[in-house]
Amino acid sequence: MKSVLKEQKELQEVDFGSVRLTLKEFLKQHRYTRYQLARHTSIKYQTIDRYYKNNIDRVDLTLLAKMCFSLECDLSDILQYIPPKTN
User: Fold this and answer.
1) Where are the domains of the chain?
2) pTM to 2 decimals?
3) Coil vs helix vs strand at 21
4) What value does the mean pLDDT take over residues 61-85?
5) How confident is the model over 23-69, as pLDDT tens digits?
């Protein structure tokens, strides 16, 4: 049991990097507003705004699919993986 707990602790200490939403940059680049995106996807403006401000803990894959469909883009256009910092 101690070895499992030790492995979990070690895993928690590993820097895996992070994922960042780049919806704000994409919309600005394509001159598309949050209001337009909300209207075209039937997603509440408040929800779009949280994604726009990169202020979410968990992503909703259905919402991302709606956004990509409406914006005619790929996930990589609105999501970015940031690798861990190396020393």
Assistant:
1) 18-82
2) 0.78
3) strand
4) 96
5) 999 999 999 999 999 999 999 999 999 999 999 989 999 999 999 99
Long-range CB pairs of 12-15 (<8 Å, 24+ gap) are 15/84, 15/85
Name the H helices within the chain. Answer: 2-13, 23-29, 34-41, 45-52, 61-71, 75-78
* Domain covering 18-82, topology: 434 Repressor (Amino-terminal Domain) (1.10.260)
Tokens of residue 69, six digits: 């469909």
How far is residue 30's CA from residue 67's CA, in Å, rounded to a whole number?
Answer: 14
Q: What are phi and psi of 52, to 5 degrees?
A: -60, -40
| 12-to-41, 59, 60, 64 alpha-carbon distances in Å | 37, 21, 24, 27
What is the 8-class DSSP label of residue 43?
-
63/78 Cα distance (integer angstroms): 12
Q: Could you tell me if residue 17 is left (phi over 0), alpha (psi between -120 and 50 degrees) or otherwise beta? A: left
